[in-house]
Amino acid sequence: MWQLYNNGEVSSVDLSERVPFLEYSTKPNVSQPDLETLPLSPCIIKTHLSYDVIPKGESESTRCKYVYVARNPKDVAVSKYKFVNSIPRCGYTGPWEFMQSCLSMAKVNISHATNALS
User: Fold this and answer.
1) Would you call 48 a catalytic residue per the annotation?
2) Higher pLDDT residue, 16 or 82?
3) Residue 46: beta bridge partners?
4) Domain range annotation of the chain
5) CB 45, CB 39: distance < 8 Å
6) Annotated active-site residue in 10, 12, 37, 48
7) In this predicted structure, what is the pLDDT of residue 72?
């Protein structure tokens, strides 16, 4: 998104500084994004929060535009497997087949996507 708003520009500034996570503003042990230095328009912020809990503008002139990104669940499963295997403190060193069977038993809740699209 940052590159779309900046005409394809490439920047050496860390992405987390250019586009902070909204959740990080509430974590005391994580470096806080300086929201005061972000441009007012467009201001790009990323979050894992569901659409129904994201702050909305109070009037038409302050209402936000949202880009909702969802990944294919199979892609998420492979990514999760590779991630937990790459970090020893996660404690998982098992085979893909075991992770696949655990993930296939999980119930997928897509209500957040339905709410964002309505």
Assistant:
1) yes
2) 82
3) 21
4) 2-48, 73-117
5) no
6) 48
7) 80
Tokens of 24: 């990080």
What's the whole-number average pLDDT of the chain?
74
Distance, CA of 115 to CA of 109 (rounded, Å):
12
Compute the distance between CA of residue 90 and CA of residue 18 in angstroms, rounded to an integer.
29
- What length does the chain have? 118
Cα angle at 13 between 9 and 17, to 5 degrees? 110
Quote the pTM value: 0.51
- CB crowding 55-65: b at 16 or more within 10 Å, else e: eeeeeeeeeee
DSSP bridge partners of 21: 46
pLDDT in tens, 17-67: 777 777 776 666 666 556 566 666 667 778 877 777 777 777 777 777 778
